[in-house]
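Lab notebook, bench 4. Still working through the backlog of constructs that have no structural model yet. Next entry is a single chain of 126 residues. Request: give me the structure tokens for it.
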Amino acid sequence: MPEFTIELVPAHDMAVLRVKGALELTDRSVFAAQAAGLVEQEAQTIVLDMTKTSRIFSIFLGTIVDLHKSLESEGRKLVILATPKLAEMFEKISFREVLDIEIVDAKEKRRRPRYFQKKSCQAPCD
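Model written out:
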């Protein structure tokens, strides 16, 4: 069974759902419940971190599209962090034309996705 964690990042006005492991057919209802929980968060940006997702069945794509549509109707944004392999699959099905997908290479351990980088400030920062 995959591992799901939700993290709120107030400084960036975002909520993050991390999915670790394989998303099997039997996990669809749990994933859908987690996605619904993200919609309830007040964060402007919702990040679906799939950089540790080893496999995903196509049935989950509909849940992701539903999540995107729900957030978009409220003027909010869904961002997907994906491995190169997963991003390639998203590219083949034209997902990248609809969703903001940032490719994160798991081998580059030092690299932090742009959504987690510190915001720059004009005045001295604490």
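Notes after review: Residues 59-73 form the longest helix (15 residues). The longest strand covers residues 45-56. Flag for follow-up if needed.
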